[in-house]
Specification:
Strand content: 25-35%
CATH class of the largest domain: Alpha Beta
Number of domains: 2
CATH topology of the largest domain: Alpha/beta knot
Helix content: 25-40%
Distance between the termini: 24 Å
Shape: elongated
Largest sheet: 7 strands, parallel
Number of strands: 12
CATH superfamily of the largest domain: SPOUT methyltransferase, trefoil knot domain
Order of helices and strands: EEHEEEEHEHEEHEHEHEH
Structural class: alpha/beta
CATH architecture of the largest domain: 3-Layer(aba) Sandwich
Length: 241
């Protein structure tokens, strides 16, 4: 069943506007009487029947309500060192599919910073990609792509808001990710992924001094656009039961 998002609870007849309405009518070619899922973005799904079509509008009526079943029990916040070109868009798409709670772009010593003045435009596009991936993968929320943070600010943010902060680091050989998460019983995990070239040693030292756990993801060095996928997959396999 196709999935769409509306802000807020649905109480009685409602409508879908704009691009989603056009998509339902002109791309999916849905008809009156067919059903769709409308999620409020807060883990509540409404199974709705299409009542009719207006100009750039689809009228819907909720038939019954259920709690979204696709959200992980653990919230994972990805702090991603900004990569080159369009890799960040791929990272957003796939990490939303895998269950990430939110994504924070991070300026590190070796990252490619967002050009000044283009931050707001980038955020609109990035959150649009998150929305599309959330629809496709049946999410109960739309993961937020937050504003860009400097590395030290991001570490402090994670230390304050996460029960566990993971710092995958190529020079870590003794502690593996699975060893750290196997007995995790908290609610939120922060994951730091470096850009091309990885983290500088001073960044690793700063992270560890603020409680981050340096971990290994295995014997092979992963690209920045692969490392987040791998880490999320391991966490979900271990904890999303």
């Amino acid at each position: 069943m196709y999935r769409f998002f509306l802000d807020g609870k649905i109480d009685g007849m409602a409508h879908i506007d704009g691009k989603d309405a056009k998509h339902i009518r002109d791309v999916l070619r849905m008809k009156e009487g067919e059903e769709i899922i409308v999620c409020d973005g807060d883990m509540t799904d409404y199974v709705c029947r299409i009542l009719g079509f207006g100009k750039n509008r689809v009228e819907i009526l909720p038939m019954y309500v259920k709690e979204s079943e696709s959200e992980p029990k653990v919230k994972v916040i990805l702090y991603q060192g900004l990569p080159k070109r369009d890799k960040f868009e791929l990272i957003i798409e796939k990490c939303v599919e895998l269950g990430v709670f939110s994504v924070v772009p991070v300026n590190t010593m070796r990252s490619i910073p967002v050009i000044e003045g283009k931050e707001e435009k980038k955020l609109v596009r990035w959150n649009s990609i998150s929305m599309a991936a959330a629809k496709q993968s049946g999410r109960g929320i739309v993961p937020e792509i937050r504003r860009t943070m400097e590395f030290k600010e991001a570490i402090e943010d994670a230390a304050q808001n996460c029960d566990l902060v993971l710092f995958p680091y190529e020079n870590e050989e003794d502690t593996h990710l699975r060893d750290v998460i196997v007995n995790f019983e908290g609610e939120t995990i922060g994951v730091f992924i470096g850009p091309e070239g990885g983290f500088d040693r001073t960044e690793a030292d700063f992270a560890e001094s603020h409680g981050a756990r340096a971990v290994s993801l295995g014997k092979r060095i992963l690209r920045t656009e692969t490392a987040g996928f791998a880490c999320l997959s391991m966490i979900m396999y271990q904890l999303d039961k």
